[in-house]
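4.2 Preliminary Data

To establish feasibility before requesting continued support, the project team ran the inverse folding procedure on a target of 480 residues. The structure was first converted into the token representation described in Section 3, and no sequence information of any kind was made available to the design step. The complete token record follows.
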């Protein structure tokens, strides 16, 4: 079945290339899909360019665009089970987590649908001159390249597709080559919802062949990218010669700060979810635990006791609480970080070796791992391992906690645990991160902006700024 979607038509890759998609939980073949090359990427850009320059979508009233997004939200809810299953097969993620993601995805479309339907982003400017009508109107940026990762395939896609469409853009979507299925399914729903041909285009394939052309091509106006730091740097450089608008959602190495006066039970519970959710393959994961000296021993003992008891299993194993990593190569990367940490003096408290259970043999499993006595310079503390690996550092006081927390090139999220409200607020205000939780970890809502500071990227997704990212402000001055 052809899987590239270009100019409203399903098509096969021009070069005839295909890629096997295998489930990370057991290596079974999910499907074989088309693998786009430069020629396909170029055709998709051309279709998006035509649809932007001469199609109806950019000029469609925002109320109508908003209604289409709301219709997509309904269709996603109708097809929730099929989408969640496809997402779990591609990622190895537990089905309940994929189902949960589906609710968030529908809510994202609903949020941007309502915001777009309400319109009202244009503004009259009061110049003080009665002979002038001055206003700022918001227009779409143009053709957007939307490039997404494998850890939350459709969720990250929805954060881009919904506002891009709401603002009136056309786009070429390039999902991760490892997890293409829900993007294919989304194209079908957009068509069913009535989106005109050429507005949404899909190319599947590897970054250098299917993705890179989108970042270099002069017919593309904007690149919105979610993925790793190294790829982000490459994309920024590739977009520079044509001065494209760029938005980057990159990695994180996020601190979870626990003060001695924290609510012990909740702090332990959330410290586990913070880092082990989706096997640590979460950009916002609380992978660096900072614990106040006097709490350290009891806290880490309890955390390790519970981490050892987390059952691993495939996406459809109802007893499993954590699943496999995405690929063999990714597991090797995580193992290398743990080995480096141990060589640098970290103490292994649990995990650290592949499971030997026969039923997990064919998947890329790696257990929840806790490394104690870590120090800021260690690579396992500094770099994003993107696996189920928690590093533990101690701190004496608030000053040292903030210094350790901010001692990273990243700035995506962070959390602080304390029953002292003043301290929670103080520390939150000093963390250089796009999202900070006080006595919580991981929640987000589509109404609030998401994004990074420092090398976690720039630009925002979700919230009003998430829509503004896909708009150009134009000042129109009329001499009356
Ligand atoms: P990645 O950077 O390897 O790939 C991301 C996407 O970029 C893929 O679609 C890939 O094919 C494409 N790509 C690779 N090279 C390219 C190139 N030269 N030109 C154009 N496209 C190219 O990242 P990944 O391994 O898929 O995802 C994991 C990373 O994503 C982690 O670092 C994680 O923190 C980050 N992430 C960030 C957020 C956030 O909100 N900040 C959310 C999810 C994931």
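Position-by-position output of the design step:
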């Amino acid at each position: 079945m052809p899987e590239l979607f270009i100019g409203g038509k399903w098509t096969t890759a021009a070069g005839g290339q295909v890629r096997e998609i295998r489930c990370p939980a057991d290596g079974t073949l999910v499907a074989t899909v088309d693998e786009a090359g430069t020629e396909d990427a170029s055709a998709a850009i051309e279709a998006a360019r035509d649809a932007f320059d001469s199609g109806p979508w950019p000029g469609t009233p925002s109320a109508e665009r908003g209604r289409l997004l709301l219709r997509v939200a309904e269709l996603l809810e109708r097809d929730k089970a099929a989408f969640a299953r496809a997402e779990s097969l591609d990622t190895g993620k537990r089905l309940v987590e994929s189902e949960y993601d589906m609710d968030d995805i529908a809510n994202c479309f609903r949020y941007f649908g309502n915001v777009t339907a309400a319109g009202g982003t244009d503004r009259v400017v009061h110049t003080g001159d009665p002979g002038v009508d001055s206003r700022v109107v918001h227009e779409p940026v143009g053709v957007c390249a939307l490039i997404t990762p494998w850890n939350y395939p459709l969720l990250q896609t929805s954060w881009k597709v919904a506002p891009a469409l709401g603002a009136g853009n056309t786009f070429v979507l390039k999902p991760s080559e490892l997890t293409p299925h829900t993007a294919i399914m989304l194209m079908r729903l957009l068509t069913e919802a009535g989106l005109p041909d050429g507005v949404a285009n899909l190319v599947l394939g590897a970054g250098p062949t299917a993705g890179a052309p989108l970042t270099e091509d002069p017919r593309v106006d904007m690149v919105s990218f979610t993925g790793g730091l190294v790829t982000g740097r490459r994309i920024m450089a590739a977009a520079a010669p044509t001065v494209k608008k760029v938005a980057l959602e990159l990695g994180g190495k996020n601190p979870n700060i626990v003060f001695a006066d924290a609510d012990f039970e909740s702090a332990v519970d959330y410290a586990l979810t913070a880092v082990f959710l989706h096997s640590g393959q979460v950009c916002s994961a609380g992978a660096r635990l900072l614990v106040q000296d006097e709490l350290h021993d009891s806290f880490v003992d309890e955390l390790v006791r519970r981490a050892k008891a987390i059952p691993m299993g495939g996406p459809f194993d109802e007893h499993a609480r954590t699943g496999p990593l995405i690929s063999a190569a990714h597991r090797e990367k995580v193992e290398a970080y743990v080995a480096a940490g141990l060589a640098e003096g970290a103490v292994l408290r649990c995990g650290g070796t592949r499971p030997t259970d026969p039923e997990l043999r064919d998947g890329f499993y790696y257990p929840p791992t806790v490394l104690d006595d870590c120090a800021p310079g260690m690579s396992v503390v500094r770099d994003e391992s993107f696996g189920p690996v928690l590093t533990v550092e101690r701190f004496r006081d608030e000053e040292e906690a903030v210094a350790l927390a901010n001692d990273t090139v990243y700035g995506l999220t962070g959390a602080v645990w304390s029953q002292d409200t003043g301290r929670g607020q103080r520390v939150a205000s000093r963390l250089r991160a796009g999202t900070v939780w006080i006595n919580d970890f991981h929640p987000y809502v589509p109404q609030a902006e998401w994004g990074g500071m420092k090398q976690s990227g720039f630009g925002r997704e979700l919230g009003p700024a998430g829509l503004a990212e896909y708009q150009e402000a134009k000042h129109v001055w009329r001499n009356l």
